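FORM 7B: Structural annotation worksheet

SECTION A. Query
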Amino acid sequence: MKNYINKGKALIFAVLITVAGSFVSAQSSQLNVVKPVIADRDLVIQIAELTGNAVFYPVDIEGTRLEVLAVKTPDGRIRTAFNTCQVCYSSGRGFYKQQGTVLVCQNCGNRFRMTQIEVRSGGCNPVPIFPQNKTVTDTSITISKDFLKEAKAIFARWRRG
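SECTION B. Predicted structure
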């Protein structure tokens, strides 16, 4: 009887590990989603596709690759920024990847809460895209090609890797 109980416990443990692993994989697969590249036009982000996980939107403007990140924070606000660090951008590795509930600079390792996006300016933070630099409706956020063009300089050495 004891042998059956131990086998039963082992089976339950194996099932729990499998389920937990699937849950972690599903959660991780939602992090660092990069959308298809758009080229030489306004960037339009659909609000319905935003969650607590940052979504990265690559944009090619006249041959320079830029990237915008957008996220819906727990307070329901939609926040946007360029995916480059205000301090580390010239290194080429000053971009962010999401780890759990924070963004991490891939150059210096600074950790940045989602609720700080578009709030803090200066220092090792994503370059904010403030309300005056975008058009927000009930369903979308539009960042003009002209505004994106102004940001080309901070992406001159940028490389996502």
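SECTION C. Observations
The radius of gyration is 20 Å. Confidence is low (pLDDT under 50) at residues 10-28.

SECTION D. Sign-off
Analyst initials: ____
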